[in-house]
């Protein structure tokens, strides 16, 4: 082979490897974007779950408060009947 043919073959190989590298880089960038999208989706879902947990905690506090108020009301009713029975 003469030098021109060798240089032509080398040029073709280098061009092909550059095309392959460009394709791989494009795929890597695409995968990186997909990973970022998945991270954002997971973050959004975690925020939604956290919001639901916080809402559940608020509901639980309200239920406990209502139970406490019902117990107080029942205690007052019992005291009323006890006092009323003492008077009679």
TrEMBL record:
User: Does Coiled coil show up as a keyword for this record?
Assistant: yes
Which keywords does this chain's UniProt record carry? Coiled coil, Signal
Give the highest taxon in the source lineage: Bacteria
Query: Is the keyword Signal in the record?
Result: yes
Signal peptide positions on this chain = 1-22
Q: Which residues form a coiled coil?
A: 21-55
Identification of the protein by name? Secreted protein
What organism is the protein native to?
Helicobacter magdeburgensis
């Amino acid at each position: 082979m003469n030098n021109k043919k060798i240089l032509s073959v080398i040029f073709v190989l280098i061009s092909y490897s550059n095309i392959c590298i460009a394709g791989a880089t494009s795929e890597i960038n695409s995968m990186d974007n997909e990973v970022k999208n998945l991270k954002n989706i997971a973050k959004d879902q975690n925020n939604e779950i956290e919001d639901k947990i916080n809402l559940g905690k608020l509901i639980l506090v309200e239920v406990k408060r209502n139970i406490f108020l019902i117990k107080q009301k029942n205690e007052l009713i019992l005291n009323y009947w006890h006092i009323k029975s003492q008077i009679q």
